[in-house]
Structure formats: structure tokens, C-alpha cells
Known about the structure:
Blueprint: H1 2-20, H2 23-44, H3 49-67, H4 80-99, H5 106-133, H6 135-159, E1 163-165, E2 169-173, H7 174-194, H8 202-226, H9 241-261
Amino acid sequence: MKRLITAVIFIPLFYLYVMKLPGGYFFGLLSVVALLGLYEFYRMFRLNTGLTVLSISGGLLFLYLSYRGLLAGEGNRSGDFLNLLSLFFIALVLFRAFIRKEPRDALRDTGISLTGLVYVVLLITYQLRLRELGPHWIIYLYGVIWISDSSAYYVGSTIGKRRLYPSLSPKKTVEGAIGSLIGGGIGSVILGKVMDIERAGLLLGIIIGVLCVVGDLIESMFKRDAGVKDSSNLIPGHGGVLDKIDSALFVAPFLYWYLMRA
Length: 262
């Protein structure tokens, strides 16, 4: 019931926010999501406070530069991303070396920091690119994911028996995964018709359904490693921010690459 109530309240507001407001507002929303997602990720793994602040600051700077189009383009702009990543890595290891002089867990700390940046920030920037192609692609992205996830949840909870990947997510079933594929395909066709999107078809939706399952399993892997059930309890009945965007983090890059080559 909490899932349904949250959806009824959130979906219309999200649609109006994305479709009616300028792109800068969507960047602002993504910035908040990235900040909360990074905080949840680093908190799960109990990363040092100083490294957490440095990593979140670096992540938000990367997101802002991506929004401004300063990390991609013609000529020497193509190397800006590597330059920024190199500078951040240098700052990170120097901070770790001189602020925390104990070398134990140095690789663990820097690995967690960099993984969080790639997993949360780098993958979330593809939603900025999709928004540039048109706000309807953001609605399509989250609409298909929501239908896919809902289908997986209800099919899995109703008839699910065979465990999909018990070591990562004991409650997920093969039947629920199939429900995700079916829901993704149906959702893509429906939204394609409603929003008049020619490139939205059954096969694209099925692939999104597959990626929803993959994204959910990857986040479950991180949570199992960290020893937590949810990334946080920020959203009643839904867990944390990472629990809600885990699928989108994997679907958005694929959808963007597909649209660029279609």
C-alpha cells in the first residue's frame, strides 16, 4: 500500500516537474539525488568523514561540469574528463596519505570513493544527456522502469518460487525477473503510443526490463557487502535514494547509446 500511495503522489508531480520546467531545474533535482545517493553509498561502507566530504564535492563538481558541457565536445575538450579524473585521484590519495596517516585500508578507502563516483555520478550524468534530447525521454525512462519494477514485484510476490540469485538478493525470483521483462515491454509500447515516440518498441522495453533486474542485483551486491538491507530509510516503504534509482543508473546509459545510434 505504501508503494501505491507514494506512486500516486509522486508520479504526477515528477511529470509536471520534468515536462514543464526548464532543464536547469532537472539538473538541480539530479544534483540532490546524486548528493543523497553518494552519501548513502559512502555511509553504507562507513567511509571516513573527510573522504566522504571530498568525494561528494568532487562528484557534484563533475556533475555540474557535465551539465555545462565542459567535459565533452570537439578538440581538446575530449580529454577534459581524464584530466579531471586524474586531478581528483591525486587529491584523493594525497588526502588519504596526509590526513589519515595509518596506511591500513588505504586501497579500500580510495576504492570505495572512486566506485561511488562512477556508480552514482558518472552513470547519472546520462540522464542529463537524455534530457537534452527531450524531456519526454526522462518520462519514458522512469515510466518504463516503474512499470517493469512494479510488474517484477507483483509477479514475484504472487507466483515467484525459484530464486534468481540467492547470494545477492534472496527474495528475487526467476518469475519476478520474467515479470520485469514483460512489464518493460508492455510499458515501452504503451508509453510509446501515449507519448508518440516512434523508437519506443517492445524489444527496447524488454531490454530495459533486463537492465532493471541487473541494476537491482548490482545494488543488492553492494548492500550485501556492506551488511545493510536498504541504502537508507529516507523514503517510507521504499528504502533510500539508491534503492529507487538503481535501475535508472544502468538503463539511462543504454537508452542514451541506443538513441545516439538509432
